[in-house]
Amino acid sequence: MVCYGAFDQVIQGVAVDKGNARAGVLMRQITGLYQRLLLTLFTLMPMMAVAYIEVFQEPSLRFESHMVHEMAIALAITLSAFITYVTWRCYTVSGEVLVRWLALGFLGFTLIYLPHGLLTRLAPDDQGLFLVYGPVSRLAMAVCFLVGLYYHDAPADALESRKRLSPWIKAGAAFLALDLVLAGVYFLSATQVKFLFTMVEIVALILLLAGVLFMALRRFRLPLMVIYMISLGVLSQSSIAFLLSDIWSHQWWLAHGISAAGFFILSFGVVQAFRTTRSFSTVYSQAQVMEQLRVQQARTLDALAQLEKANTQLARQAATDWLTGTANRRQHTTRAKEDIARASRDDGDLSVLCLDIDHFKQINDSHGHDVGDEVLKGMCIEIQRNLRAQDLLSRVGGEEFQVLLPETDLGQAARIAERIRAAVAALRFQAEDTTVGITLSIGCAQLGQDGIDMDALTRKGDKRLYLAKEGGRNQVVTDDAPVALSD
Length: 487
Ligand SMILES: Nc1nc2c(ncn2[C@@H]2O[C@H](COP(=O)(O)OP(=O)(O)OP(=O)(O)O)[C@@H](O)[C@H]2O)c(=O)[nH]1
What we know:
By secondary structure, the protein is α+β, with helices and mostly antiparallel strands. About 70% of the residues lie in helices and about 5% in strands. InterPro entries: Diguanylate_Cyclase, GGDEF_dom, Nucleotide_cyclase, Rev_trsase/Diguanyl_cyclase.
């Protein structure tokens, strides 16, 4: 018996759970629905705060603190740089395209958002230059996340390309160059700046929502992909909050908080990937892993059953004669040893019949080997029909057979032999347009009086078989006296 220990218990537990689950399909569907509802509500939670401030907050209330803003941005940049590194490390191992774009998105956010913090003190004089880096950093991140999502099932990048640093350095340089280009807003009017911000934020919002929609329609179920979707949903709400806000207003600060929440959720996913498979699309939930285990165990058990079947078949083939299906010499020897040992131990009887077809060569010569084969098979079936379950018929030579008869003395053996002889003699086999019959000569020997081991018994049985042949064939001989020739 195969023992699977704790693994088996876990699997059996799952099987029981599954059985229960099957019984309560409806309950499963309801809880699944509830789970999705909770996730949706959780994702939309920031909107409640945004709506609350929008409706109830006095618009003139402001919290203008450059220092707090600088500290918040410094923290955001530090964490973002850290998560960029962790994501990049994941990518170098898994090569997952989605993770590559994630890392690029985080890198873009870090480098584009940086001047937003550095230039905070410019705010009173030039709000445009200070603010522009916020929406653009979110847009860059949204673009990368959406592209990554598009390639979520692309094959992993080649090993050598994962480790190359030059593409990352080039991407970093491009983001810094973008920072310089963005400094051009310095020359734009206040209206142009406002229009630019709004457009950038709206595009970021549309891209993030497109990502959420894509994932919802494709029904992503893997835990990290669910986290990805929630994060995009939360980030999109931060864009809404930014669109509704004025600088230093409470809505504006809240928008920062929502953006940070979206970032934290995604970074949680990244860390989870880092601590497991380093990929977003191969981290499975516990239920999924258990299901996989169940399927794999079912396969293993199936394979074991097939192996056992094949082994049994092989063992049978190794012990059987290919033509007649009777025991072969190997099985005969093993069984004879066991039967002799048992009979000797229990002081029981055991007899042996040595059988040989008479003039079998003539059958082959006259009708061909195929007919000879059919005769051998048919004869064996007939002999088996006249034996008990514990008796063993074996083919020990071409047309020579032996029968082991446990718990049988010589007198009983002679009667069985006679029954077999008569039954075989009555058989008729089809050979082309005629029928042929055969006869058997049989020598009998008994354990004890004729020998104490199989060699001796066989010698004695063969000797009596020879006497039967000498005496005219088609007869049973049980002693060593020459048999008078029958006519
Ligand atoms: N068709 C067939 N013939 C076999 C097989 N094994 C042995 N034989 C034949 O069995 C015949 C045995 O012939 P002999 O040993 O001369 O004995 P016999 O013709 O039976 O004559 P006696 O035993 O003296 O009665 C040979 O022709 C073998 O070729 C087999 O698997 N199939």
